[in-house]
Amino acid sequence: MEYAVAVNDLTVAYHKKPVLWDIDLEIPSGVLMAIVGPNGAGKSTLIKTMLNMIKPVTGETRFWGEVYEKQRKNIGYVPQRGSVDWDFPTNVLDVVTMGTYGELGWFKRPGKKEKEIAIRALEKVDMLPFADRQISQLSGGQQQRVFLARALVQNADIYFMDEPFQGVDAKTERAIISLLRELRSIGKTVVVVHHDLQTVEEYFDWVTLLNKVIIASGPVEKVFNEENLMKAYKSKVDKLFS
Amino acid sequence: MSLINIFSDYTLRTVALGSALLGAMSGVIGTYAVLRKQSLVGDAVSHAALPGIGIAFLLTGSKNIEWLLLGAFISGWLSIYIVNIIIKHSRVKYDSALGMMLSVFFGLGLVILTYIQKIPDSNQAGLEGFLFGQASTLLKRDVIVMSIVGGAIIIIVALLWKEFKLLSFDPEFCQVSGFPKEKLDLILTTLIVIAIVTGLQTVGVVLMSAMIIAPAVAARQWTDKLSVMVILSSVFGGLSGVIGTIISSSTRNLPTGPVIVVIISAISIISLFIAPGRGIIWRRMRDKKNKKRLNRNIILNNIYNLSTEGNGTQGYSLEDLSISKGDFNFPINTLEKELENLETLDLVKVKDKKWYITEKGINEIEDFRGGLGE
Amino acid sequence: MNVQIEIQLIAIVVALACSTLGVFLILRKMAMMADAIGHTILFGIVVAFFITHDLNSPLLVIGAALTGTLTVFLVESINKTKLVSEDSSIGLIFPLLFSIGVILISLYAGDVHLDTDSVLLGEIAFAPFNRFVVNGVDIGPSSLYVMGTILIINIIYVSLFYKELKISTFDPGLAMVLGISPGIMHYSLMTLVSLTAVGAFDAVGAILVVAFMVGPPTAAYLLTDDLKDMIFLSGIIGTISVILGYWTARIFDVAIAGMMAVMVGVVFLLIFFFAPDRGLLSIMRRKKRQKYDFAQISFLMHVINHEGAEDEREELGKNTIHEHLGWNKEFVKDIFNNLYSSNLVYIEDDIIKVTEKGRDLAISNAEEIVNGI
């Protein structure tokens, strides 16, 4: 099996305490994977460390065998919706166009071509009628769709999404999941920080259970079972030695 | 008299031009400080510039503005650098680090100024001018320096337009798009320090922060577009510079810096109230309108509910409607007035003192309920 | 009492009065609000002077102190509209009030015997000249009595409302549930902050009050986790800064209050670098060690995980273990030697084993990792 991502021996610490301990993780190409675990398990930290936003104490992440910088343009990212100020003076089309900035590089301005790419992405998430809308006037679900559209514009091979289902309406949730499935069907890999255990089996085909250490990682039907969930959510020391 | 002065009086023209440049420059760069929630950086940098001015004077022995501003730039920049080091490597919060560095650097500035005063024949008179600014001392060459600096700032902002926008809106995404956050942050901070330092001579270390914040706050209220905000902000800043200079030159003993600050603050506060769409007054009006629509729809909803429960086309008297829903009890005369309003909108009709909901009324209420469900 | 001691005593009382409240200011992330108040009291002093015509009137002190409260109120009113963020609201209000104060002084300079510089900068060297005379007997400098009274008020306030302040600072939600109004705590604290700033302005100047309010508590924050200790330590740090500042200023014959603020900065930086646990040096050392420490724990856990298993000889073999840990051989050797010399592991029949001490260490660390933070 070809691995899109291989994390090796990754340990992250804030101050004295490790937040992630000795993470070894392989994500095969073309899976739709959820990272689940209790609050404070280090889910967001894990993807941020993979994407070079946090410096680990030890370990490294490789994408198709190469370091992050080499593969940056093939990696898409959807941050948590709450991480930005939605009162920023800009509109929907402009935010989605930001997805092209990485490809454009320094100094170059987005032009007609980039606008068209953005419009197509907006169409995909059913947000085209909102293109000129000021972003503060969007509902939570609409904000999330805008972020997704921006990631689509990045045209990456692997997408990392931090809690895309957080605080969105049921309609948006269905729209997002069908979009993620579509991405998988065209061979993309999607990694989602997720916290709704109810929907893991329905939405995803691969899952990583995390609670500072990797509890289990693999196909949903194999590893998403009561035993592993107990380990992840009712943390006991002995699991480290199991 | 003063309006004529600005065209004929050479000194006044120079001062007004300088203040306008300063306002425009800090307006542009202040937009980013305000949007990135780093408004108070200006406060720290401007206070922290004081020791740099003193040290530059001590080292060069001249009051040559370029040297003094270079000193101010270095110490202003250093203070922010130290603040960043402190918050990066300890649990000290941003505002504590900022407040402490601001006052400590300012204290150092006072120490150095008193030291200079004690040096015989040091001709230090004028350094205190940096506390509250003394626009009247602006010379033509100062204005030339300011234009060059202002031009450079505008060129850099234009070149790095999309990078600065991305950094301000979503620093994480900026990072993953291949634009290092730290580097851009450093450039932006440096530009802020430059703009502040350039304005010290006019507005002074204590008040310069207002020139960074107020124009941008005012501009934000009038537009939802970053480009328009930057332009408006520099227009507001420039305008208050000119107006402030003229007013203060027309009255004896009126210090320029504080007058400029009062003007730009007034522009901001007025903008907060009257700006269309966002402004407080506008919002009040909209709330009132919404409340009106809500009132109307409550009554309409009432008839609708009664009609759907009953046999459809039945009409209801005022009394029926006024007692039907305890929660939204309108006095009879208000109810009648509202119903008449509804009638003019064709949402209800009246026959023999009985009120009926129309087809249009049903659509309206179903639409409204649908909207609530979203 | 000679003048030297009087000056230092006044400054120490100012420092104590400031740091007592400052601890709560920095924990509530209100340091910049203190800065704003430090500026706006100028406006209050000027307006109160127009009313009382007496710079030494207690009414002036109270009137000016209310401007601090007004500042907080205005900032919050603007912030509440959600049109402007909190930092911008602060940055909008205080320069405006301060400017109006400066303009009033400039316009009525003839009537107001008060200049902007002295409010802002202060000159503690002159503080002892203003004596407090009772029945013809000189009982000391009046600022000492003014600041002493304010210090006592602050101490009484903090000790009476210690619990309320603590809860409303760390958990405003809980405070509400317990019937403590965070709003009342907030405004009462801010009113005392401005009272202190007004009282101290002619001694150390308004901006240096900020140094005393923010600096020592921030330094103490790096030394302790205990709120009470933090208050005491801030007082000590403030006092040390005062004494150091006074004598340094004397040596170079420069502004005393300014030098005291500089010393606040110097003491802070010393603590920032050398604090035992949270200091930069100790953090750097820890970061360097951390990689090594974590590796040791990983090593121990690897041994515990595989001891007694079928593949024990392979996984824990003294010549093969590095392959299974995925580390380079030299590093593994280094780690092993270290653990061995600490008596945490031993070798039996070419297989690495863990001692009871090693097992305890690994398990207690693992416990911390999983349950920790």
Question: What's the arrangement of secondary structure elements?
Answer:
The complex is a heterotrimer of chains A (242), B (374) and C (373).
Chain A: E1 3-14, E2 17-28, E3 32-36, H1 43-50, E4 58-63, H2 68-71, E5 75-78, H3 92-97, H4 101-104, H5 112-124, H6 140-153, E6 158-162, H7 170-185, E7 189-193, H8 197-203, E8 206-211, E9 213-219, H9 220-223, H10 226-233
Parallel strand pairs in A: 3-7, 3-8, 5-6, 6-7
Antiparallel strand pairs in A: 1-2, 1-4, 8-9
Helix pairs in contact in A: 5-6, 6-7
Chain B: H1 2-8, H2 10-35, H3 41-60, H4 65-89, H5 94-118, H6 129-132, H7 140-159, H8 161-169, H9 171-176, H10 181-203, H11 208-222, H12 226-250, H13 256-274, H14 280-309, H15 318-324, H16 332-344, E1 348-351, E2 354-357, H17 359-373
Antiparallel strand pairs in B: 1-2
Helix pairs in contact in B: 1-2, 2-7, 2-10, 2-11, 2-12, 3-4, 3-5, 3-10, 3-11, 4-5, 4-10, 7-10, 10-11, 11-12, 11-13, 12-13, 14-16, 14-17
Chain C: H1 3-27, H2 31-52, H3 58-80, H4 86-107, H5 116-121, E1 131-134, E2 137-141, H6 142-160, H7 162-170, H8 172-177, H9 182-204, H10 206-221, H11 227-252, H12 256-274, H13 280-306, H14 312-315, H15 321-325, H16 329-341, E3 345-348, E4 351-354, H17 356-371
Antiparallel strand pairs in C: 1-2, 3-4
Helix pairs in contact in C: 1-6, 1-9, 1-10, 1-11, 2-3, 2-4, 2-9, 2-10, 3-4, 3-9, 6-9, 9-10, 10-11, 10-12, 11-12, 13-16, 13-17
Organism (chain C): Anaerosalibacter bizertensis
Protein name (chain C): Metal ABC transporter permease
Transmembrane segments (chain C): 6-27, 34-53, 59-78, 90-110, 144-162, 174-197, 203-223, 230-249, 255-275
CATH homologous superfamily caption of the largest domain in chain C:
ABC transporter involved in vitamin B12 uptake, BtuC
Termini separation of chain C (Å)?
Answer: 53 Å
CATH topology of the largest domain in chain C: ABC transporter involved in vitamin B12 uptake, BtuC
How many strands, what sense, and barrel or not for the largest sheet of chain C?
Answer: 2 strands, antiparallel
Topology of chain B as a string of helices (H) and strands (E): HHHHHHHHHHHHHHHHEEH
Output the CATH topology of the largest domain in chain B: ABC transporter involved in vitamin B12 uptake, BtuC
